[in-house]
């Protein structure tokens, strides 16, 4: 072998070739540097899309959340305060609390009036060593009319009844006797709220007057439903005295509605009262009296007028603003004063007169003006009539031989004597009160004795209702319509008559009952 060294072939590249190789190398590196991030970005995008698809499916499979949006009511700003409403409203008349077909529930004999502190059985008048100062506390809330007589209903509360009964010489048995009678009368009420088989306006009016005399209203604990039903029934009655079955229905109904309005202050009754009072005003004769069914003409019936006169007085005391009321009262007073000298005859065109008519004339004139003028001066026209009542009519207050219209006659005589006061009241009280208590049935009612008057009333229950209402009103005389003054000498039974007490101080009784025209 030759010692010649063999070397590999070395090719020598030109500059141009080297430049081309370097460019291709740079391009390759650039592609490699860009491909990684691009692939990564695409991969991430794909991952994000897959994740979104997965999450969407998961969300769709989950139970949806329901947001219950409650709209908040915008409360407007409070309006300015309204004037205060009329005080002490009662149950609206058009919404009775009991239906008419429900039976009348028995009234609890444990009436709060029994707890008046008059448990003694003595017939002697209670002592009045307190100087005659008896506090007349009243929980009866009359209407707020400024023309309402504050004295008209003062004694009708539980305390007021006890105080006035004591102050005016009543036996301690009077209040329990009245309470017992009211229990019976409440049971005798028909489911529709009325009393009596016929002429229900008159009997229902008399019965309602009995409960009102006791201070009972629709809010009373024991008799509230009884009174409410009666007021509702009378308020809905359409009788206007023109052709009524009972001649006195409209006037007695109006009398009761006026007192109901005064004692309850229920302004739903005001229009009803005004409508009924207006009928009386329109039916009055030119001469001031009234004739049957409010017929116009020359006839002037004092018996019929009497209930209309009392209704007018009750309207005035209740604050009735019916146009023509003052005029009607002025004409009534003139009529009574004109008839007084003849002794109050039954009718203006006849000479017949009796104790009943004397009582009607005396009481109505007393109620309109006042028994005394505040200076101890009596009403001149009444002096001779009162003497006749003392000399003649008092002798006939006898249960065993009553006149035909016994209860009717005694009712007017009792109230007239009470307003007169003095010796007349003392003597009258000692006869009528024991007589009524003695003849009260143990169940609480009265029924006419040997008189044919009851035969004109209706069935036996109606006769009992009629007699019982008159007896209750007579025994309630002590507190029902207080005298406008103290009487001739300011005493009864030789002792000072009770006068109201204001803030612990004795105040003189004023003529609040006098009608100012």
Account of the protein in words:
There is one protein chain. The protein is mainly α. The protein has a single domain (141-506), classed as Glycosyltransferase, CATH 1.50.10.20. The protein has helices at residues 15-61, 158-167, 174-187, 200-213, 224-236, 249-264, 268-283, 302-317, 325-339, 355-369, 383-391, 406-420, 422-438, 460-475, 477-480, and strands at 491-492, 495-496, 501-502, 505-506. The strands form 2 sheets. Strands 1-2 form a two-stranded antiparallel ribbon. The protein has a two-stranded antiparallel ribbon with strand order 3-4. A hairpin with a 2-residue loop joins strand 1 and strand 2. Residues 1-11, 58-76, 81-150 and 486-517 have low confidence and may be disordered.
**Beta fraction:** under 5%
Q: Can you tell me the CATH class? A: Mainly Alpha
Structural class: mainly alpha
CATH domain fold name:
Glycosyltransferase
Mean of residue pLDDT? 74
Strand elements, count: 4
| Shape type | rod-shaped
**Sequence of strands across the biggest β-sheet:** 1-2
Which percent bin holds the helix content? 40-55%
Gyration radius, rounded: 47 Å
Low-confidence stretches: 1-11, 58-76, 81-150, 486-517
- Intertermini distance: 176 Å
Count of all domains = 1
CATH architecture: Alpha/alpha barrel
Q: How is the main sheet built? A: 2 strands, antiparallel
Element order: H for helix, E for strand? HHHHHHHHHHHHHHHEEEE
Per DSSP, the total helix count is: 15
